[in-house]
Amino acid sequence: MEEVAVVENKQVILKQYVDGIPKETDMDVKLGDKIKLKAPKGSSCILVKNLYLSCDPYMRGRMRDFHGSYLPPFVPGQRIEGFGLAKVIDSDDANYKPDDIISGITGWEEYSLLRSSNEQLQLRKVQLDDDDDIPLSYHLGLLGMAGFTAYAGFNEICSPKKAESVFVSAASGAVGQLVGQLAKLHGCYVVGSAGTKQKVDLLKSKLGFDEAFNYKEEADLDAALKRYFPEGINIYFDNVGGTMLDAVLLNMKVRGRIALCGMVSLQSLSSSSSSSQGINNLYNAIPKRVRLEGFLQSDYLHVFPQFLEHVKGYYKEKKIVYVEDMCEGLEQAPGALVGLFSGKNIGKQIVQVAEE
Amino acid sequence: MEEVAVVENKQVILKQYVDGIPKETDMDVKLGDKIKLKAPKGSSCILVKNLYLSCDPYMRGRMRDFHGSYLPPFVPGQRIEGFGLAKVIDSDDANYKPDDIISGITGWEEYSLLRSSNEQLQLRKVQLDDDDDIPLSYHLGLLGMAGFTAYAGFNEICSPKKAESVFVSAASGAVGQLVGQLAKLHGCYVVGSAGTKQKVDLLKSKLGFDEAFNYKEEADLDAALKRYFPEGINIYFDNVGGTMLDAVLLNMKVRGRIALCGMVSLQSLSSSSSSSQGINNLYNAIPKRVRLEGFLQSDYLHVFPQFLEHVKGYYKEKKIVYVEDMCEGLEQAPGALVGLFSGKNIGKQIVQVAEE
């Protein structure tokens, strides 16, 4: 009989549903049940060792006790999940074999048993070129969900044209930094906002934005936008919602487009909250014929291969760069996730769980 | 030498800029300068006798001291203007001759001197078929700017499909009543909201809506919408903005469309107003992939001939009806215009200035 390793499996557990902004204490890192490093026969599953986990703002939505969304909430008392990169240890799925690297939704734990036929997990094998000088972790950011969100949102929702003016909020973040660089490659004028001087410098020096500003230093966001866009904004890629979106609505050009990607500043609020200031300037969308459109990257998976080809190509030609914020060890994961909502991270936040 | 009639020209004057909702006392009806009933030689103008004037909510925007919109404000102390139907008395424009009926932007006065080369006036000759049993005034509503707003907005912005669910606010108004009927002709399920029992009855009995409700009797608009749309809304044709739009955002189906046509409830507020509750539920547009789009009918004038053909056809085949609220005499015009904002009118509000 075959010898099967059994290990203790460290996990990040959601202690209880979260109301508002998540705190580190909403999660626990502890040893879960022991796990056999084996994909059971007949299960069609793969047993993977998790290497990198992606911290994404949308995960906050799954920490709430709200069952009407496009993704179910996490289960209190159980390990949470999110996009990750993992190595196949054992496979009962003909499409995967040991040592394959996979990306997709995996558990926030050392080892996970996953079923690739579950489409919601978006599992796919990561194709590593022989001459590939792209860091593996980039398959979570630049070449993963965040990068694809930027690519799909900018190309499919914003309909960019050369020489148009583009504004990106949370511009140094996982999605924003690629939106800005794609816009520059399209020949657009690009301005980004961020929340620290260091991020603003990064936008202008390393990420090639034409201009950038620290929104926390602007008492009047409308005036700030008028300074950088005296003739108005053609495209706004919105990662934050709230007062920034409201100010942008006062500065859109005729037939401008707004891609609603994420609303970090609002999404922690319950929908019936009356404490929120709300959006007051939506009326401006009428005389300016502005289109606002919410989107999810998962609706555009048919262009994922094209995305990989294009963005890998840009990277290899040194036309784009990507900034990651990597922390090490599953113990750091709750803090890294929570840090997203105070802007602690610089660039794409990733947790390294194990050595490659 | 030719004898030219000179008459006193009664006019509706804007007394001062309006802040908030206009009142009758913001306008004056009085005799203006005497006017020669003659289009001066070399002027390329036409001299018209105004027959019908259209009262439209957008006019409120022109009563404000705000110069950044797509239309300039009215000039305090001078006569206001709006869409109307008029008869040509004299013409120095080869395209028009006496007794022609024209539609377009004309003065709120008995006689106006207009230049058709001014594209903003949208002047056109009204084609009256020999067998035409359509009331002339319908060329201001059903076959005019209001009807065209409904047609262009519903077809070009809402992308309707058979069996989709459609919600229309201010549904018995000049625009809403045609949106609902067009949606029914598309095979949609259609619900309208209005502000009185009489209007709700009209929607269900005469205008063919599947359902209708009085929003003033609903303490919880979200609950009201869930009652009529248990599976959600595909298309919302928004004529009001505000709390209704906010409630609709909680009830949109995946890939729903919202046409932002007018925001009667909001547009009187200055853009920086903090007294407004604002829109709190825009975040829902992301998971539901909802598109919101502002539009102006004037962007779609290339489909105006098609609109006239289609809607005239529907009317002659008795597939649609149209409800007008007609008052008589220029003296009634300020009250009729102001009444729009309290919902006094039932159907398209028109002022008859003179007999045909």
TrEMBL record, chains A, B:
Residues 174-311 form the Alcohol dehydrogenase-like C-terminal domain. Keywords: Oxidoreductase. The keyword Ribonucleoprotein does not apply. One of its GO terms (molecular function) is oxidoreductase activity, acting on the CH-CH group of donors, NAD or NADP as acceptor. This is Enoyl reductase (ER) domain-containing protein. InterPro entries: ADH-like_C, ADH_N_2, GroES-like_sf, MDR_fam, NAD(P)-bd_dom_sf. PANTHER family: PROSTAGLANDIN REDUCTASE, ZINC-BINDING DEHYDROGENASE FAMILY PROTEIN.
